[in-house]
């Protein structure tokens, strides 16, 4: 396995800082399964307030947040509407289908953002031979949409539509705080648009693991049962929750710096004729290369030889993600190295 000096493969690559580890070492803990862990209880209280929800639940991963939300909202044979490039469809081992028995209807969505009008077309008629449309699934920010932020007005339209039609709405907030920092919209305003929402602690917030799922009292009661059933209930999980509390206190405003680093990286690359790069809204930079000499995998390989890690999405598409552990100088070096290799 490579060790990268500069790891742009994902914002999951952050190593917990010394200060975060100190907070973890000092955490008060108890049996989380019995709601007796004070650090976990503090974390879920903070996140439910942040997202404007009645209650929240600490879970090992974002994937489990999505899965449990689907298990609570859907019965087998129900249908979920989600963007065709969503993480739910591409990167969660088909958990919604394999474990919840729900079918996903992909909506073609530029940058992962779709409208209430598109959903209106995708909702099934109430016929005995049609699946029952149950849930609208939205990613904020959109991972494979280049880190795009759903505008609050589009989300509100969708929320209004979902209420009118009796559908549930769920926000996958793996990078919700990136959207908050990037747009200036309150986390609570996003929370108000949906029945369930979660945020990941292990992405830009820099924690070793963990995610928090929020919703109504009733939703979280049902989610808690699924957490137990799936083996996600923990013991002295406060050790990890303390990292989350530390991150919410100290690592949120720094996401703005990650966004600046992403724009700087994109700007540096855009000067190169072989590279096609958009203007990143948050911390994800997708770029196309057009070189007769090499494809994306070969470029990634050349970069790896210089200690730089980058994500390969297709033969021509790459992804770079900025985070706490890459500096401005790292980003400059990575962009310069890419330009040098392609030249
Ligand atoms: C990373 C990610 C997830 C899954 O979160 P994990 O904590 O890695 O399980 C879900 N959705 C999106 C959009 C993600 O980027």
From TrEMBL:
Transcription regulation keyword on record: no
Entry's Gene Ontology molecular function annotations: threonine aldolase activity
One Pfam family per UniProt: Beta_elim_lyase
Enzyme Commission number(s): 4.1.2.5
Keyword Lyase: yes
Alphabetic keyword roster: Lyase, Pyridoxal phosphate
Main enzyme class: lyase
Aromatic amino acid beta-eliminating lyase/threonine aldolase domain: residues covered: 7-289
Cofactors named for this entry: pyridoxal 5'-phosphate
Superkingdom of the source species: Bacteria
Quaternary assembly: Homotetramer.
Family recorded in the similarity comment: Belongs to the threonine aldolase family.
Protein name: Threonine aldolase
């Amino acid at each position: 396995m490579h060790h990268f000096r500069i790891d742009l493969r994902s914002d999951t690559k952050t190593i917990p800082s010394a200060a975060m580890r100190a907070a973890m070492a000092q955490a008060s803990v108890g049996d989380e399964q019995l709601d007796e862990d004070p650090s976990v209880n503090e974390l879920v209280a903070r996140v439910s307030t942040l997202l404007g929800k009645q209650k929240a639940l600490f879970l090992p991963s974002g994937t489990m947040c999505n899965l449990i939300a689907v298990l609570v909202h859907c019965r087998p044979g129900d249908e979920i509407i989600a963007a065709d490039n969503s993480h739910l469809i591409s990167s969660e081992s088909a958990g919604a289908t394999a474990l919840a028995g729900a079918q996903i209807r992909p909506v073609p969505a530029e940058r992962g953002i779709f409208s209430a009008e598109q959903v209106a077309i995708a909702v099934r008629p109430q016929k005995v031979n049609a699946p029952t449309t149950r849930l609208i699934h939205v990613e904020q920010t959109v991972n494979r949409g280049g880190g795009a932020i759903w505008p609050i007005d589009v989300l509100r339209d969708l929320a209004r539509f979902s209420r009118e039609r009796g559908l549930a709405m769920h926000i996958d907030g793996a990078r919700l705080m990136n959207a908050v920092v990037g747009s200036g919209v309150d986390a609570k305003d996003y929370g108000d648009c949906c029945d369930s929402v979660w945020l990941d602690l292990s992405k830009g917030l820099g924690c070793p693991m963990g995610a928090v799922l929020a919703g109504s009292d009733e939703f979280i009661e049902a989610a808690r049962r699924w957490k137990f059933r799936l083996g996600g209930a923990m013991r002295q999980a406060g050790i990890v929750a303390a990292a989350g509390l530390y991150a919410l206190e100290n690592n949120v405003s720094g996401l703005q710096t990650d966004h600046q680093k992403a724009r700087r990286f994109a700007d540096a690359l855009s000067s190169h004729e072989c590279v096609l790069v958009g203007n990143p809204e948050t911390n994800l930079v997708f770029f196309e290369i057009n070189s007769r000499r090499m494809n994306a995998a070969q470029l990634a390989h050349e970069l790896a030889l210089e200690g730089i890690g980058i994500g390969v999405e297709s033969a021509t598409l790459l992804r770079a993600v900025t985070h706490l552990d890459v500096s401005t100088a790292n980003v400059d070096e990575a962009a310069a190295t890419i330009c040098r290799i392609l030249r």
